[in-house]
Amino acid sequence: MSSRTLSETALGKALDNAHAVYSPNPPRWSDRQSIGTSGHDASSPAGTVLRYSVPRLTALFSPGIATPLATQGSVAVVSLSVHSWAMDTAGFLARLLNYGFTSTRALSTQTHGFNIDPRVSRAARQNFHRSLLIHPETSYVWGYFEVGGAPEALFPPADQWPNTLTCVWVRESTAIFEKEIEKSAKYIDALDKTNEYVDAEENSRIIVVDVDYPTGDNSAMLSKNELRSAQMEQVLRAAVKAVKIMMDRGFLDEANTQAAFELLNGDERSEIAKQMYKWLTAEKLLHKDWRRTVAEWH
């Protein structure tokens, strides 16, 4: 039996509770040196130390004390596939607003356990999303993706739409589907249908932010680490764009939203929040005209 199997057997419950997965990647939110690319600590005898990834960006957390709540009570971040990184967009967005965060996946595993049949998990996630759309919790952001599904599964019916709920659709480009999914036709079809649905609804509470498959100069392919970094910056930009549109539409108060940005650097905030603060500073977004800067992004 391999060291990985032995470790997972001995620590299975703890790993399951933490939603941990075996990880060959270096830490994303740490300044510590990488410990190799095989999942083993390079400083330890080969095969004796395994590395797992425990969700941090998309781990559940409660709202902060000071939030920019005006007419923006809760936010659903939705997409047509996991390849949009919509969960990460939702995690960033919750931190920008100082709101709480949850996900339909987390709610499903809390109810049914981590090692459940994928079909049961999908049905549970769909049910939780439908429930949250009609009865959202104030000052929370949640993430959900419907695999190539109908647009009606992403948004609440118009006649049941809660007054202060906003849905942020992280809209994948066709390039993402073509690069990430072998049989992408149904996803591209779902993309077309969702575009038609959103256009027909003309609902100001639906915000669309676009994401694309990152490439280098002259469309060159990126290395695994370069792709990972480019995707992460793209979804953080998507979250900032969503906040800008909420403010443009009068859902958020400008002064309180700016204060929420500043709170990212608070003593009690996580390392992720502090790294976000550094990024906002570098992008010159910590000033009263930050929306003009975002409007100039391509």
Features:
single chain; 298 residues; alpha/beta; Rossmann fold; 2 domains; five-stranded parallel β-sheet; two-stranded antiparallel ribbon; 11% strand; globular
The main sheet orders its strands as: 4-5-3-6-7
Tell me which CATH architecture of the largest domain applies here: 3-Layer(aba) Sandwich
Biggest β-sheet, characterized? 5 strands, parallel
Rg over CA atoms, rounded to whole Å, is 20 Å
**H-E string:** HHEEEHEHHEEHHEHHHH
Helices and strands in order, then pairings?
Blueprint: H1 3-10, H2 12-17, E1 21-22, E2 52-53, E3 74-79, H3 86-97, E4 100-103, H4 104-112, H5 118-134, E5 140-145, E6 165-172, H6 174-180, H7 185-201, E7 206-211, H8 224-248, H9 254-262, H10 271-282, H11 290-295
Parallel strand pairs: 3-5, 3-6, 4-5, 6-7
Antiparallel strand pairs: 1-2
